[in-house]
Design goal:
- This protein is of the alpha/beta class and about 300 residues long.
- The protein folds into two domains: about 180 residues, Rossmann fold (3-Layer(aba) Sandwich); about 110 residues, 2-Layer Sandwich (GMP Synthetase, Chain A, domain 3), CATH 3.30.300.
- It contains ten helices and nine strands.
- The strands form two sheets. The protein has a six-stranded mixed sheet, with helices on both faces. A three-stranded mixed sheet has the order 7-8-9.
- The longest helix has 18 residues.
- The relative contact order is 0.13.
- The N terminus is likely disordered.
- The structure holds guanosine-5'-triphosphate and magnesium ion.
- The site of magnesium ion has 7 residues, from α2.
Length: about 300
């Protein structure tokens, strides 16, 4: 009897969980908060995440490999189609799905598409009703009731990723989705994302936060050089910001180079924090006409999973 119990206690759960939802609902913020560290960039603008980003969370008896995905939306151009494809593929490949809904801004019509995919793949899923810090409690019950009718969710958990509210409950439900099995990654690993990709993403996050209208969507960042100078405890990062048009280059550089300087300063400060070293960041802006429209150019921009 006691032996059987001992075996049970030692059972370990592991697996992949895709974090999916409409753009801007807080998927990346939620993943970072669950991990307790920043692996994916998050901004107030929709379509921030462009490809799958894995975040690994290892506990005493589980390992969850989260797969953060781009927001699923009605994609018109090639680039957005590839983004949505990333999310759909993730749902197909994982053991379980975490669907994130913005409880403060419901869009049932757009949500229909996600529901359709979920029903097709028929995977165990947990629903997170996010941003409850912006919602009156009384509004939550009808929402929970609505979602419990449209899909057999294993659980529906109200959370605030921003305020870390409800996260332990959510994590418990996510772990319960996983099959028994050994860990996929070493326990100290939080992501399999190469450091140079994370560096490019941090720069892109600052671009998203500081520029407006079509500019963030017209930019891509490639880290050309990522080199440690051990003698000086210095990280040398050289990156190129690609834009689609000459006029956009002027905007990203700004008057007297002010905008590029701001982007560089914010990115450098965060990179120094993340990597725990001094960073020398060298940013260039180049025009690559129509990079969003051609698969060949997208590949040249080193999109990690395209
Ligand atoms: N008030 C509030 N804001 C939140 C919460 N979670 C995320 N946000 C904000 O929502 C915005 C979008 O967050 P992201 O994490 O980038 O959203 P996303 O779903 O990954 O967006 P895409 O990658 O563009 O699909 C950011 O401004 C976040 O700070 C929350 O619980 N409460
Ligand atoms: Mg995101």
């Amino acid at each position: 009897m006691s032996e059987a119990k001992g075996d049970k206690e030692r059972s370990f759960r592991s697996g992949f969980v895709a974090i999916v939802g409409l753009p801007n609902v807080g998927k990346s913020t939620l993943m970072n908060q669950l991990l307790g560290t920043k692996v994916a960039i998050a901004t107030p603008k929709p379509q921030t995440t462009r490809f799958q980003v894995r975040g690994i969370l290892t506990g005493p008896d589980y390992q969850v490999v989260f797969v953060d995905t781009p927001g699923i939306h009605q994609a018109r151009d090639l680039f957005n189609r590839l983004m949505v494809e990333q999310a759909v593929r993730a749902i197909e490949e994982v053991d379980g799905v975490l669907w994130v809904v913005d409880a403060s801004e419901r869009r049932p019509e757009a949500e229909e598409k996600i529901l359709e995919i979920l029903r097709r793949v028929n995977k165990p899923a947990v629903l997170a009703l996010n941003k409850i810090d912006l919602v009156k409690k009384a509004e939550l019950l009808p929402m929970i009731d609505y979602f419990s009718r449209i899909y057999p969710f294993r659980a529906i958990v109200p959370v605030s990723a921003l305020e870390r509210d409800g996260l332990p409950d959510l994590l418990q439900e996510i772990v319960a989705l996983l099959p028994e099995g050994p860990p996929y990654y070493p326990s100290e690993m939080v992501t399999d994302q190469p450091e140079r990709v994370l560096a490019a993403e941090i720069i892109r996050e600052k671009l998203f936060m500081l520029t407006r209208q079509e500019i963030p969507y017209s930019t891509a960042v490639v880290v050309e050089e990522f080199r440690e100078d051990p003698g000086k405890n210095l990280l040398v990062i050289q990156a190129t910001i690609y834009v689609e048009k000459d006029s956009q280059k002027g905007i990203v550089i700004g008057k007297g180079g002010q905008m590029l300087k701001k982007i560089g300063t914010l990115a450098r400060e965060e990179l120094e924090f993340i990597f725990g070293k001094r960073v020398y960041l060298d940013l260039w802006v180049k025009v690559l006409k129509g990079w969003r429209k051609e698969e060949r150019l997208l590949r040249r921009l080193e999109f990690p999973y395209f």
